[in-house]
UniProtKB/TrEMBL annotation:
This is Obtusifoliol 14-alpha demethylase. One of its GO terms (biological process) is sterol biosynthetic process. Catalyzes the 14-alpha demethylation of obtusifoliol to 4 alpha-methyl-5 alpha-ergosta-8,14,24(28)-trien-3 beta-ol. Pathway: Steroid biosynthesis; zymosterol biosynthesis; zymosterol from lanosterol: step 1/6. It catalyses: a 14alpha-methyl steroid + 3 reduced [NADPH--hemoprotein reductase] + 3 O2 = a Delta(14) steroid + formate + 3 oxidized [NADPH--hemoprotein reductase] + 4 H2O + 4 H(+). InterPro entries: CYP450_sterol_14alpha_dmase (IPR050529), Cyt_P450 (IPR001128), Cyt_P450_CS (IPR017972), Cyt_P450_E_grp-IV (IPR002403), Cyt_P450_sf (IPR036396). Heme binds at residue 406. Keywords: Heme, Iron, Lipid biosynthesis, Lipid metabolism, Membrane, Metal-binding, Methyltransferase, Monooxygenase, Oxidoreductase, Signal, Steroid biosynthesis, Steroid metabolism, Sterol biosynthesis, Sterol metabolism, Transferase. The gene is LOC123187057. The lineage of its organism: Eukaryota, Viridiplantae, Streptophyta, Embryophyta, Tracheophyta. Its cofactor is heme. GO terms for cellular component: membrane. Its main location: membrane. It comes from the Eukaryota.
């Protein structure tokens, strides 16, 4: 439990001093941040603080200490100015460039555009992209799964988020421009987003060109009265609470932000799903059998309802996400003194101005929530076990939680399930490279190196 505490009357959390931190450097370098943070959690408990240069950082582990982090009001715990580096990536009229109230309304536009009832219309375009993409694979061969999934997900994003105009004519350019936007994700740009280094220059150039492309599409739709089914259209048609229409610049920024938010996250979880299933044949057999069963009932038809029957596949993706989240932790800043109560009942006061890091990766591995947390076991989410629910709210925080929970979760599952059901039905797959390690050098964590998979075409028989 976490509450606000104006006088900060409670004792501070255990402090990890500079000597303890220095002693951990070799562990950090050789074993990585997860092992280091797990050591600190085991030693100091679910709340602890460190100082780094002039900054105090308080770490939180577990659902018991996470409620205010996720659900607190902006005046208690906020995203602060930590995402300012995204302003030159997404433009000056949306996201972290605008006031909080406008930003929240934009997030509601995302939620509306990506809610399950809206997603039904995306199934067919997603399926078409997936079928066309994998039709280009040969009879058999070896591919880098990470690269392949990255490409197919970008094709889907072009079609379903940006729309047919981009997908049909401009995909190559968009793909390159997005790589340019992503140049803005590095340590220098994070600390000094406007510093004139080449990466920032390439980021700015890419955003300007991408914005022009989106403007052209919007203007052409308006001129010819064309209305599409994609998310871009939903954002164009959205209105703020006071009745104002979204501006062209805001829509362009929002759509770039959405693609960015969904791109690596989805490609990572789908790649980890593959790596996990191909090394756990027990579950691979179960998901293949699930496809057979569904084919017996629905033949080759795939629609929103059929996808919702793929429960073990869904759990297999969710479990891959639990074991390999895209981030070690989520970040906020305290705007008031707050109190955190641990599951043992100890209360700590965290002062206004602390950076909070919620270590969702460690929460996913807590043994009082997840049985044998290091074991890949999609069955842990089945009725009767449902370990994430039994563990309490925020036990599964791979998609965040509360006021800033990921609005793209249902969309992400939809596209990953469409890809994996197609792969399972049409290919025999074998992981030929070793099980990937996590690449800690990336801002958004991903499987390290190539994930090589040997494929052989097949047509799954339902009987
Ligand atoms: C498996 C895939 C995904 C994962 C693991 C994931 C994870 C997350 C997480 C952890 C957050 C919360 C960040 C925080 O609290 O600071 C978040 C926010 C967000 N996600 Fe996702 N995401 C995924 C896919 C997507 C997709 C496909 C989209 C869009 C189509 C999307 C759009 C967003 C947006 C716009 C936010 C910001 C919400 C806000 O600030 O209120 N995500 N995502």
């Amino acid at each position: 439990r976490v509450t606000s505490d104006p006088g900060c009357t409670r004792p501070p959390p255990p402090m990890v001093n500079i000597i303890a931190l220095l002693k951990l450097l070799p562990t950090l370098c050789t074993k990585g941040p997860e092992v280091t943070m797990t050591y600190l959690y085991n030693r100091f408990g679910s709340v602890f603080t460190t100082s780094f240069l002039w900054k105090r950082i308080s770490f939180l582990v577990g659902p018991e200490v996470s409620s205010l982090f996720f659900q607190g009001s902006e005046s208690e715990v906020s995203q602060g100015n930590m995402f300012e580096f995204t302003v030159p990536m997404f433009g000056p009229e949306n996201g972290f460039a605008v006031d909080y109230s406008t930003r929240i309304q934009e997030i509601h536009f995302f939620i509306d555009a990506l809610r399950p009832s809206q997603l039904r219309s995306h199934v067919d375009p997603m399926l078409r992209e997936v079928e066309d993409y994998f039709a280009k694979w040969g009879e058999e061969g070896v591919v880098d799964l990470k690269d392949e999934l990255n490409q197919i997900l970008m094709l889907i994003a072009s079609r379903c988020l940006l729309g047919n105009e981009v997908r049909e004519k401009l995909f190559g350019e968009i793909y390159t421009l997005f790589s340019g936007i992503e140049e803005g994700v590095n340590l220098v740009s994070f600390m000094l987003p406007y510093f004139p280094v080449p990466a920032n220059h390439r980021r700015d150039k890419a955003r300007i060109r991408l914005t022009e492309i989106v403007y052209d599409i919007m203007r052409s739709r308006k001129t010819y009265g064309r209305v599409e089914q994609d998310v871009l259209q939903k954002l164009m048609d959205s209105r703020y609470k006071d009745g104002r229409r979204t501006t062209e610049a805001a829509v362009a920024g929002m759509i770039i932000a959405l693609i960015f938010a969904g791109k690596h996250t989805s490609s990572n979880v789908s790649t980890w799903t593959g790596a996990c299933l191909l090394t756990h044949t027990k579950f691979l057999d179960v998901v293949v059998e699930e496809q057979r069963e569904i084919m017996r009932k629905y033949k080759d038809k795939i629609d929103y309802n059929v996808l919702s029957k793929m429960e073990t596949l869904h759990s297999s993706i969710k479990e891959a996400g639990r074991m390999h989240p895209a981030t070690l932790g989520l970040i906020r800043q305290t705007q008031k003194n707050i109190t955190v109560r641990t599951k043992e009942g100890t209360e700590y006061g965290i002062p206004k101005g602390d950076t909070l890091v919620n270590l969702v990766m460690l929460t996913s591995k807590l043994s009082h929530i997840y049985k044998d947390p290091e074991v890949y076991d999609p069955y842990r989410f089945r009725p009767g076990r449902e370990e994430d629910k039994v563990g309490g709210r925020f036990s599964y925080a791979i998609f965040g939680g509360g006021s800033h929970v990921c609005p793209g979760e249902a969309y992400a599952f939809l596209q990953i399930k469409i890809i994996w059901s197609h792969l399972l039905r049409n290919f025999e797959l074998k992981l030929t490279s070793p099980f990937p390690k996590t690449d800690w050098s990336k801002f958004m964590l991903e499987p390290k190196g190539k994930v090589l998979v040997n494929y052989k075409r097949r047509h799954l028989e339902s009987n």
